[in-house]
Structures are given as C-alpha cells and as structure tokens.
Amino acid sequence: MSRVGKHPVEVPQGVTCQVSGQEISVKGKNGELKAILSKEVLPTLEDNMIWVKPVDESKQARMLWGTWRRQVDNMVKGVHEGFTLRLEINGVGYRAAVEGNTLKLQLGYSHDILYPIPQGIKIVCDKPTSVAISGADRQLIGQIAAEIRSYRKPEPYKGKGIKYEDEKIYRKEGKKK
Fold first, then answer.
1. How confident is the model at residue 2 (pLDDT cuts 50, 70, 90)?
2. What residues does the Large ribosomal subunit protein uL6 alpha-beta domain cover (predicted)?
C-alpha cells in the first residue's frame, strides 16, 4: 500500500482547483497548471482536499498511485509558493547574464551560448556565476536546469563547469611526476 498516496493533498487558501474525470486544473497566484492523470488512478475533490485513489488493486495502479499524488501536490505547491533551483558556475571567464528573454552563457567555448527562456519561467543572475531558475512547474524547472548544466558539466579535476547549488563534485588527483 502506498504511504504517499493514502494522504490527501491540501488545497491552501487562494488556490482554486477543478477536477473533471481524469483532468485536474490548479490555479493560483503563480499561474495555472493542468494535468491529465493516468486511467489507473481517480482524483476527487472534497472539502479543499484532493484525494487520489487507485481504480483497482492491479500492480500498475498501485505503482502510479503515489506518483500521481505527488504530481498533484507539486502542482498545488507550484501555483501557491513556486519552486526555485539554483546553479553555480565555476571556472575562469565562465559567466552568465540574462539579456531580455534569453540567457547568455560564456563557458569557455569560442562562441556564447544563447538559451531562450520559456514562457512561465523566470531566470535571474544575481552574480555572474549564479543562476536561479524559478516558476510554478517543477518538472519544467528541473528540465531547464539539466539542459543548462549539460552545456558544460563539472569536471572532476578542477571542478570547472555548471553544477547544482547542493551538488558535491568528487575530485580526482591529477598526474603525478
């Protein structure tokens, strides 16, 4: 039995939620998110609580039960509070800046990398070596952070590259004489 799925998702004040069949729509101060849930689970809205229940006792329904409950919880938290992911840039001459609707990255290549910022996502560079990605959709924020990180992954010898703020880079020893 899912320990995550058996708890309801609480809808906070200021967030409106609509459930119609398998489709769920959540609207708050940070925007609106919609999702169509799998046919193995059934969402219901009762007293500002969203319950996600499995349709039957099949293995697939039990696997998706907790997954979809967590997805709905992330939607509610996203439109109410929002999510933020931070990246750090290490390396001589490596820097980032937001210019209009694009993120300009200088990562030691012969050219600058221009990353277009998607709709509904906010990217802020407090310092030239720090990038903060924020928005309501947790999956999209993670995807964008992974794409930006993939332009120059951190290397294990000097630690140069783009890394997540809480990521630990395991360092290797260089050549010995």
1. low
2. 11-82, 91-164
Please measure the distance between the N-terminal and C-terminal CA atoms of the chain and give it in whole angstroms. Answer: 58
Write down all domains in the chain, each with its CATH number in brackets. Answer: 9-80 (3.90.930.12), 83-164 (3.90.930.12)
DSSP string, 44-104: EEETTEEEEEESSS-HHHHHHHHHHHHHHHHHHHHHHT-EEEEEEEESTT-EEEEETTEEE
Question: Cβ–Cβ contacts within 10 Å for residue 70, how many?
Answer: 16
Instruction: Give residue-wise pLDDT tens across range 87-126.
Output: 999 999 999 999 999 999 999 999 999 999 999 999 999 9
This prediction has a pTM of 0.89
CB atoms within 10 A of CB 79: 23
Q: Are 138 and 124 in contact (CB under 8 A)?
A: no
SS (HEC) of 127-174: CCCEEEEEECCHHHHHHHHHHHHHCCCCCCCCCCEEEECCCCCCCCCC
